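Exercise (ungraded).
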Amino acid sequence: MLGNEVPVLSEFGDLEIIDVSDLEESADSRKLTRRERAEQFRVCKRRNEAYATMLRMEGVASAAELFSQQPSRTICIVNIGYSAEGLLTVQLLEKAFSRYDGFERVVVNIVKPYSFAIFHSTSEAQSAFAELHDKPCPEFKNKLLVLEYVTPSIFAQLTKEPIPGSTESIAETLDESRGLFYIADFISEQEEQTILAYIREDEEREISTNGGSDKWHRIQERYVKHYGHSFDYQTKHVGDVAKTASQQLPLWSQAFIERMSECIPAHTLEPDMLTIQRYPPGAGISFHVDSHTAFTDTLAVLSMGTPVQMDFRKPGAHNAALVSLDLEPRSLLLLTGEARYAWEHAIRIRRTDLVDGAIRERRERWSITIRKVNKTIECNCKYPDLCDNDAETVQRLRARLEYQRD
Ligand SMILES: O=C(O)CCC(=O)C(=O)O
Ligand SMILES: [Fe+2]
């Protein structure tokens, strides 16, 4: 068991992020076997990431702004929050902390991968801290808990507590007036089955004609396949043509693309790129805005299989408000204008969604995203927060385009 041998990463003043490669040289790690050392690297890396995520989400540059050097009755669990365990997180944390005298409650916010445990008194919190910090926690598969004392007044969720999964804290809404269109039952069940059968058929054909390999690419836990153009996940722009399943959109997509245009004529898309994504249960896509300079205004997402919750947030805001939208199978989502350019969207990586107070298990989901490539690689939107028009990578892509034109 590694226990206390794992280096402590948080130093006051500034957060000290340990370079995991330094561990190789440390006297302690030399006594460990290769396997133990690999495990130590992994734990250390995860811990670095947990601190960095918390700083980023709270919008602060240094750990000293978040954590208190003095013990307090409120403990932050830096590396456990609402995530893959979904609502269970609350119960598991309660189980872990309620073993100690003076435990009052845990606070978990559905948007945050960290959480808080509150005790009646500072001395009771200190006893729990001493027992739990940096120790394997049986409730979380023996993960080492990373704890810090905090002053509650600086965390919005400790002063005003949203119920996990509730939408009460939403300060803004997204609707048609802001460019979000949601059309339930855009295709019928029969059409959904037909499209899924075409997807399977294409895969079988690829395997038989490509010496046993298909055109799916794995991105984190999900699988993607591109038609028309491929996508480069580094540059967030059009990628290598060899990575497409075909340079044409599939024939079977024509009918629903036409229907899309009829549905909302003002947002006719004339798409030249189609991406199929397959999400096994628990998979998701992290918060992002589809590059402004890579694609034109309207983005369309057709959902199939199991329903899933999509979250939207405005970037940069301290304790960003979240808007959640349930994407039902067979629905079509259109993101245009403000909803497309000024909000980030994500599908959280977790196995359950909380919908109307009930836990819903996720099963397999497919989505088809339809876009038009922005040939100029330029954007002059009025939403600069998320605009990549001036990004160095984009300037380089534009320069290359001009060079090719000359
Ligand atoms: O799969 C989805 O529903 C959304 C996918 C998405 O946001 C994207 O590919 O940019
Ligand atoms: Fe997206």
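Further reading is listed at the end of the chapter. For now, observe: Residues 1-17, 160-171 have pLDDT under 50 and may be disordered. Residues 3-159 form a domain with the Alpha-Beta Plaits fold (CATH 3.30.70.330).
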